Here is the input.
Amino acid sequence: MDLLELSLTLSAEQQPRAEAALEELGALSITLLDADAETPDERAILEPGAGETPLWNALVLNALFEGDADRRVLTDALREALPELPPERIAFHEVAEQAWERAWMDRFGPMRFGRRLWIYPSTIEPRPDDDAVVVRLDPGLAFGTGTHPTTALCLEWLDSLDPAGSTIVDYGCGSGVLAIAALKLGAAHAIGVDNDPQALTASADNARRNGVAERLSLHAPENVPATMRGDMLVANILAGPLHELAPVFAGLLKDQAPFALSGILAGQEYELVERYATCGFAGLRIAQREDWIRISGRRGTG
Here is the structure.
């Protein structure tokens, strides 16, 4: 089925509000490009280092939707989130699914997170490095490539841990990148949870590509085994669902298990920290990358 691409030209200050609105509207993917670059290679986003932010004044944001998405609904929602955005900066294009996948692969390059962890598209052979832990990734139509600050925050958190022999829960697994990264870093088993069947398909495909499919279990939220308990949890979704899911996450984790949450815009973290503190989580810490937040800590009050 053909897809619908929505393109915006906007300022760096407007980007977080636009992304949040488009994710709420069900965007299948969101990519960012430097609007002032002159060539395709210069336009491609490379993941900034820890603590760094892109220096671009203007961005091109491309969001992909199902082909039958209502353009008027999308436009009205954007105008509400960004009332200062001129209408002429919103454009729609019909895109063949395979053509979009090729274009996405052209923009996606190798990215490093933390000390050991690298994300490579499947079309590029990794450079030899004895210390590197490499995840080969094709996201399909699911969110999670590492190019977004929320995914980067979670990957850096995983790289800072020693998950050897553990079971990790990746709630809202998207492309499976976080679960697969944990497995490549030494986790014994990963449980991916997502309410989007396309995400579960993308996660399964990427797990096979990385040789870890036998160690990844995938579930819709309603099918998660009632007795399942993880040694760690990562959830890269949105602040609203994270607020609602706090007691669910408490029930999914063993005592003292570490966890990380992202998909949180700056300013939303305070209410979430209070919520998780009252739901049996402790040692809560905040990290920020651009306008996005990661909250980490552990299950239990001791």
Q: What stands out?
A: Residues 3 and 67 are 4 Å apart (CA to CA). Confidence is low (pLDDT under 50) at residues 38-55, 140-144. The chain is about 30% helix and 30% strand. The two ends are 52 Å apart (CA to CA).
